[in-house]
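Support request, please re-run this one:
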Amino acid sequence: MISVESRRAFFLFLALFAGLLLVWQLSTASAPPRSPYGIPQGNAEYQMLMGHAPGTTKTREGFPGPARFAASALQALHAPFHNNGPSDRGIGWQVGASLLRVAIGYGLAVVVAVPFGFLIGLHPVIRRAVDPFIQILRPISPLAWMPLALYTIRNAEGCGIFVIFICSLWPIVLNTAFGVGSVRREWLNVARTLEVSWTRRILFVLLPAAAPTIITGMRIGLGIAWLAIVAAEMLVGSSGIGYFVWNQWNNLSLSNVLLAVLLIGFTGMVLDGALAALQRSVTYAE
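Re-run finished. Output below.
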């Protein structure tokens, strides 16, 4: 049975969505055509003076309205996995390429960050020693790592994976350390009294108690990884959704750019929802 609050929320969502479409339609209905260089379309002499002869430059028809966007999106989604070469691949193929990179880089980050977080969560001395390094490296932008990655790795695919790894590492480390360090001492004392081995303490005491906090860090890290790969692909990618956005902008196809932006947001929502469901499954009440 759907609650009254849920129904109200749903109708409010529909009203907000309809209002957004209305504002979108009104704001794009009378937008005049403009040149990508800011030159009036009808001023041929001015275009020639600026070195852009009429008919030799691509023009755009203004920001697409809802109807034009819907038609373009349906056309792009009609065959999302077509592959006619590096410069002509479907948007589904591009999203899949980005997800593969995220899976590799993020998976490596989880494999490294969780044991490291356990280590510094169990040993305060190690935590104090490495904390300055973490606090310096944690706020560095994904794009700031790109020049160093390109120089050392010299491979665009490897650079993208490295950027995902280094940017999603820190929230998982910090949340794992916090979760392990917050486990009640009484539980560990009881396990020690019962002469439970360290392996069993980690698997049956520390890991279940810290799991909600660890997965919270994994959710944050996954969101950062998805942001990082889009930015990296816009710079050096030859495939992926970030490359698709930049390539469509160069082609002045704002409808495809908008479609890609919405797919980026939708994919991020699905990924976060999957980890949110996992977090709810491990949450417990003391």
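The two ends are 29 Å apart (CA to CA). Residues 56-60 have pLDDT under 50 and may be disordered.
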